[in-house]
Specification:
58% helix; globular; mainly alpha
């Protein structure tokens, strides 16, 4: 499946938001979920939706968010939700409670949302300092913010890196990046 476009991600988040708004009052009423948790989870999905809509505008992250939730909270919640869907959707599909194509689309949309955050959309350092990438002589605080962003990206890249024990799909792993492939390296 190709990566979903922002409009498709927004449509999925609207579906998810409506489903939570429908289901959570019953969970709260029966004591299976505290009201504060229901409110927070709904606020997170609403924030994701706002972020996707902001990201799809020319101003993007320059448009201030109205939701007030931190980048870290939004990213961590998206990652937890993605992990939960990957764990639970196969069972729901097997039991006929969710169509396989719907499960794949929902997971792809959430993965695209997580990638948006991990690519740096709306990122802020823990100090709130802007890394000021265009500044060739950053302040100490800006340098710290840059280091913090680089550490986050390194952690994401390490998580997403293919296992070194797996054989390469592209032949000799010793070739430097960008080196032309020998014709024997390409499967017919």
């Amino acid at each position: 499946m190709t990566a979903p476009v922002p409009a498709r991600i927004a449509r999925e988040l609207r579906r998810d938001l409506a489903a939570r708004r429908d289901a959570y009052p019953g969970r709260v009423a029966t004591g299976r979920m505290p009201q504060e948790e229901a409110d927070h989870r709904i606020a997170l999905v609403a924030a994701w939706l706002e972020d996707v809509e902001r990201a799809d505008t020319p101003a993007g992250a320059a448009t201030p968010a109205r939701h007030g939730l931190s980048w870290r909270d939004r990213r961590a919640a998206a990652e937890r939700e993605l992990d939960a869907r990957r764990a639970h959707y196969p069972d729901r599909v097997a039991k006929g409670r969710l169509a396989g194509e719907d499960a794949e689309t929902r997971i792809a949309c959430l993965a695209a949302l997580l990638a948006l955050y991990e690519d740096g959309f709306d990122w802020r350092s823990t100090s709130g300092e802007d890394p000021a990438w265009g500044n060739i002589a950053p302040t100490a605080a800006q340098s710290t913010a840059r280091d913090e962003f680089r550490a986050m990206r390194a952690a994401v890249e390490a998580r997403d890196a293919p296992d070194a024990a797996e054989p390469s799909l592209f032949g000799d792993d010793s070739a430097p990046p960008g080196a032309p492939l020998a014709s024997t390296d390409i499967a017919a």
